[in-house]
Amino acid sequence: MRLLLVEDNVPLADELNTLFTQNGYAVDWCTDGRDAAVMAVNIPFDAIVLDLGLPGRPGLQLLEEWRRNGLDTPILILTARTSWSERITGLRAGADDYIPKPFHPDELLLRLQGLMRRRHGCSPTPKLSVGGVVLDEASQCAATLSNTDPVGLTRAEFAILRYMMLHPEHVIPKDRLLDHLYDSEHERNPNVVEVHINHLRQKLGRGVIITQRGQGYRFGGSVKPETA
Amino acid sequence: MISLTRRLALGLLAAGLVVMFLLAHGSVLLFDRAFRDYLGSRLQEDAQSLMKDAIDRNGKLNLASLPFRGHYNQVYSGHYFSLQMDRATDIRSRSLWDKHLPEVAPGLSRRLVPGPEEQQLLVWSGTFRQDGHRFDITTALDYTSVADSLNWLRFSIWMLGGLLAILLVVIQQHVIRIVLAPLGQVRKELELLNDGHRLQIETPVPVEIAPVVNELNHQLERIERVLTRSRDGISNLGHALKTPIAVMEAQLARREFDQLPELRDALAARLADIHRLVQCELQRARLDTRNSSHKSHFQPEQELPPLISTLAEIYPHIAFHYSTEQAPSTLPWESEDMLEVLGNLLDNAGKWANAQARLTLRQQQENIEFIVEDDGPGIAPHKRAQVLNRGTRLDERVSGHGLGLGIVEQVVSFHGGRLYMAESSLGGLKAVIQLPLSPNGPK
What we know:
The complex is a heterodimer of chains A (228) and B (443). Chain A has helices at residues 10-22, 33-42, 59-68, 84-92, 105-119, 155-166, 174-181, 190-204, and strands at residues 2-6, 26-30, 47-51, 75-79, 97-100, 127-130, 133-136, 141-143, 151-152, 171-172, 209-212, 216-219. The model of chain A has no long low-confidence stretch (mean pLDDT 84). In chain A, 45% of the residues are buried. Chain A starts with a strand and ends in a 9-residue tail after the last strand. In chain A, the strands form three sheets. Chain A has a five-stranded parallel β-sheet with strand order 2-1-3-4-5, sandwiched between helices. In chain A, strands 6-7-8-9 form a four-stranded antiparallel β-sheet, covered by helices on one side. Chain A has eight helices and twelve strands. Chain B is α+β, with helices and mostly antiparallel strands and 443 residues long. Helices cover 52% and strands 17% of the residues of chain B. Chain B is built from nine helices and eleven strands. The relative contact order of chain B is 0.06.
C-alpha cells in the first residue's frame, strides 16, 4: 500500500512516516500543496493523507481540483479545524474521511484501513479475511484454513499480502506491486519481491500466491486440507 | 449617581431665589428711602408753615392763628406737631393728646420713632429764628401704613419671584430634556453595540457631546481591532497547538513506551487535558467574540441533509433518521453552532448505536427541542451527570477525545438553553437540548 502524506509540519510528518512505515505502508511525503497536486496525479497511490493548512495551495482547493479531474484515490483529511461545519465542507469537497488533530495513531490507522477496505468493497472488520486467509492488520499476523495458528509476518511480507488480498481477483504485475510497496526514495529490486513471496508461500502454503508467468502474481487463497 | 438635571435645577432655583430676594429687598429699600425723603420734605414744609402761621402780622406770637386743621385736631390721627418758642412756650397739636413727641436730632429722623398707639412716626425737627424769637418745631407723621404697604410689596415681590424661579426651573428641565435627547439615542445605540449589531455610534449629537462620541467611536474601533486580533490570536494559537499535540500523541504510541506504560498513560492524560483546554478556549473565543452584525439563522431542511449524509458515511452500519416537521423552517441560531451541537450528539449516537439513531426537532411552547436518540446500551441514570460534567469520557475504547459533550454544553448554555439525558424508546440514550426561541440575550 502506498500512501501520499501531504503535511507541512515536519515533526508530525516524521512521526506519521514512522507510523505508516511500521504498519506496512510505503509513504511518499511532501510539504507543499503544489508538489502534492502533481504527485497525486502521476503516482498510483492507494490513499492520500491530506493536511488542510498547507503552504502553496490550500488543501481544500487541492481536494476539489483532484476530484474535478477524476482522481478517485481515497483521501483522508487531517486537520486542526475540527468544527462540524468545516468537517462537512471537507467531506463535501470529496474527502472520504476526516480526522481532527490531535488524534490517536491507532485511530488514524484504523480509519485508513477502513478507507481502503471500503474502496475495495470489503467490510471494515478488524481482520481482513479473503479466500480463507485471515490477516490481522494490527499484529501483522496471518492464519489460513490449513494452519489456523496465526503466523507472524515481516513488514514487507505483510505489505505484499495485504495488497494482494485487497485485489484478490487481479493479476498484479511485479512493477505494480513495486509501485505500491515502495515509496519513491527506495531502491526497487524486483528480486526482493520474489524473495518475500517465497517466504509467504513457505509460511502460508504454496497456493497462497500464484505466479502467472509473464503477467505477474495473483492471490490464490487457501483451501482446507483434505482430511486423509 | 450625580444627576445633571437635578444639579442644574437646584442651582437655578438657588440663584433665582437669591436674585429675587435681593430684588425685593433692594426695591423696597429704595421705595422706603424715596417715601421718607418725600414725606420728610412735606414735614419740613409743614413746620415752616406752622412757624409762619404762629406769628401774626404784628410780629407777635399768636397761637390762635395756628392751623388746627382737621388732622391736627383728631386724636392720634397720625399727623402731629409740637412747637416751642424761646424754649418756654410749648404748644402741641391736639392730635397728640397727652403724649409728647420725642426729642430728636435736627432734620429728618433716621429711624422711625415709636409714637402713640404703637404708631411708627417719621419725625422732622428744626429750629427757626424769626423776629428775635427762637422756634423749635417738630412735625411727625405716622409711617405705619407706608411701612405696611412696603412690607406687602416686599412679600408680593418675593412670591412672584419664587413663582418665577420655579417656572424657570421647569423651563430649564424641559430644555435639558430636549438637549439631552441625543444622549438617549446614543445610549440606545450603545445597547445595540452591546448586542453586537453595531460597531459605530451614528446619532448626530450636539457640538459639546460630539468629542465624547468621537472618542467613544475611536475606542470602539480599537476594541473591535483588539477583539479581532485576540480572536484570531486564540484561534491561530489553538489550531497551531493541535499539531504538536498530535506529534506527541504519535510519539507516545512508539514501541519504546511499551516499557513504561505508567509514564505513557500519565503523559497521554496530560495531553488530553491540554487538548480539552485548547478546544474549550477555541470554542469560547468563537462564541464570545463572534460578529453578530448579520442576522444568524439555521435552516434544518437545507443544512441537516449534508450532516446526516456525512454521519452515514462515518457510520455506514447505522441508519440515521431525522424529522423536522414539528419545528419552524428557520431557527434563530448560527448554523455553525447548531451543526456543532447536532454533529457531536449524532456522532456520539453513531458511536454507541447498534443499528439506528434518530434526530427529532420540535417546538415546545417557547423552546425548540433537539432530541437525539440511539438504540445502543445507553447510560445508567447515576452516571449521566458524570458524562455531562466536562465531557468526561466514560469508555476509552470508543474513539474520540471525549470533548463532544463539553462543546455541546458550552454552545447550549451560551444560547441560554439546557441539555439533559433520558432513556430512549429505541432502548439507548436520549439526549435532549432545549433552546429558548427568544433568549434574553446570549450569556
